Amino acid sequence: KDGHWIWIDDRGQTIFDENNKPIRMIGSHTDITKEKEYENTIVQIKELYENIISSVDNLIFVKNNNFEYVTCNSAFEKFIGKSKEELIGKNDYDFLDKEVADNFRSHDEKLFIENKAISSFNWVTYPDGKKAYLLTTISPLRSSNKNISGLVGNSVDVTQQQKTLQRLKEAQSFAKLGSWEYNIKKDEVIATEELYNIYGVTDLNMKLKKYFFYKHVHPDDKKKIKKDLRKTLPLAQGNILHNRIIRKDNGQTRHLEHRWSTKYKDGVAVKFVGTTQDRKSTRLTPVTWPSRM
């Protein structure tokens, strides 16, 4: 009556006489405006969601419990070289090399077994030949009853960061200098690969603790280094220490220089951050300048 439009569900039935001629109709009209508005809201939310995930550069994808693709964003379509419609209902073996598909499947299976998010780094090749280094995190996708209904993946292109790390690795290798951070409370050292090389450690997964470094100090330097450490550790900046070590792999003696600073929190030392350089392995090459013409 007020002139506004509404949605109705119109249902009717024709009544026939004994001669099979239609004589009247009966039916009903039901106002379904609220239901239609709800449907439209769902459609709008779905479109918004798809627009959001397609506007980011990260590769985003969703798989069900059978490892089949359910949806993905535009960046993932570009990576695979196929449209979302072509991907839905397919698994990695349908369009990837077996080696790559095996790698993805092993991570997917591990997620369902451990029931927690998993992250991994991988070099991948796009259809146009471009290579990229991706950090991929897959997480459980849970239904309303908390059961795992699939997984959602998010891959970030960290190629430039990896190249920067590689350049840092090469520079540290050339200078025979490794960087490190020591957590005092955990007695745990996080270090670059070159520090492992300096000490002759080939297992880069080996956990480094304070005792390891003291163990490899040259026997003639152990008393001196204890004395020097007592003097320098309280200093916040500018700590320098020299000592010899016995390498773990071949027993060779190396002369090291350590530089570090002490980090404090609420007046308490919490960690040391510094570098260690193999001074004996460092060689300076004489440079001969050409005479003037």
Task: Explain this structure.
This protein is of the alpha+beta class and 293 residues long. 31% of the residues lie in helices and 35% in strands. It contains eight helices and twelve strands. A five-stranded antiparallel β-sheet has the order 4-3-7-6-5, with helices on both faces. A five-stranded antiparallel β-sheet has the order 9-8-12-11-10. Strand 3 and strand 4 (69-72) form a beta hairpin. It is elongated and about 120 Å long. The N and C termini lie far apart (103 Å). Residues 282-289 have low confidence and may be disordered.
Mean pLDDT: 84
**Structural category:** alpha+beta
Main β-sheet, spatial strand arrangement: 4-3-7-6-5
| % residues in beta strands | 25-35%
- Regarding quaternary structure, what we see is single chain
Radius of gyration (Å): 33 Å
SSE sequence, one letter per element: EEHEEHHHEEEHEEHHHEEE
How many angstroms separate the termini? 103 Å
Q: What's the main sheet like?
A: 5 strands, antiparallel
- The total count of strands amounts to 12
Defining key terms:
5-stranded antiparallel beta sheet, alpha+beta, 31% helix, 293 residues
Briefly summarize what is shown.
The protein is α+β, with helices and mostly antiparallel strands. Helices cover about 30% and strands about 35% of the residues. It has a five-stranded antiparallel sheet with strand order 4-3-7-6-5, with helices on both faces. A five-stranded antiparallel sheet has the order 9-8-12-11-10.
